[in-house]
From TrEMBL:
Gene3D superfamilies: YgfB uncharacterised protein family UPF0149, PF03695. SUPFAM superfamilies: YgfB-like. Signal peptide: none annotated. This is UPF0149 family protein.
Length: 175
């Protein structure tokens, strides 16, 4: 199975930046969450439904047909890879001189994908898993506070992948 490399993700980031706006997926981490929710949800979502959602429900005015084709191919390949196996693509930063994982954008993308796929109401146990993702998405950590509770932050980030896997497992049994 072919996977995307750093150059591919840089291209995706550049396209998202070039053609995005306030209603678009902002970066590769958010795209990863978006696609993860789409491929692991209750029912398949056709590309003609989810692709415009990357750009806030519209199709960009592509300057280059080659860039459009490459972007579609890479995003589709990544979605197919995520359908087989996923490991969230979180962002990394530094806080007070220490590495820190940020998951807010991934979680925001995940919720965007779940919303586009129009997920039905979940049973209580699965809702708890979705709440883990929703809580992280609701946090505004664009500017990390100096007094950030790093241990609590890491604990919350560590809970996201198991929550997403639990939701994926639940929906797999419902298909």
């Amino acid at each position: 199975m072919q996977t995307l490399n750093d150059t591919d993700f840089e291209f995706i980031e550049d396209i998202l930046l070039q053609y995005g706006d306030d209603h678009s997926v902002l970066n590769a981490s958010e795209l990863d969450g978006y696609l993860t929710a789409l491929v692991s949800g209750p029912a398949p979502v056709a590309i003609d439904e989810w692709f415009p959602g990357i750009f806030g429900g519209r199709q960009p005015e592509w300057e280059s047909a080659a860039d459009c084709q490459r972007f579609v191919e890479l995003v589709t390949l990544h979605a197919n890879n995520l359908a087989q196996r996923f490991s969230p693509r979180f962002e990394e930063t530094e806080h007070n001189g220490q590495p820190l994982t940020l998951a807010e954008e991934w979680c925001f993308g995940y919720l965007r994908g779940a919303g586009l796929a129009n997920w039905p109401a979940l049973p209580a146990a699965q809702q708890v898993a979705l709440d883990v993702i929703e809580t992280c998405a609701a946090q505004d950590n664009f500017e990390l506070p100096a007094d950030l509770d790093v241990a609590l932050h890491r604990q919350r980030v560590a809970a996201i992948e198991p929550a997403a896997r639990a939701l994926q497992g639940y929906w797999a049994t419902q298909r």
